[in-house]
Amino acid sequence: MASWFVRRAMESWAHYVKAFASIKEGDGTLLDNCLILGNSDVSEARVHSIEAMAAFTAGRMGGKIKTGLHIDLKGDAGTRVGLTALQLMGVKVEQWGTKSNLTNRNVG
Question: Which of 8, 59, 82, 101 is a Cys-bridge partner for 97, taking CB atoms 3.0 to 4.6 Å apart?
Answer without folding.
Answer: 101
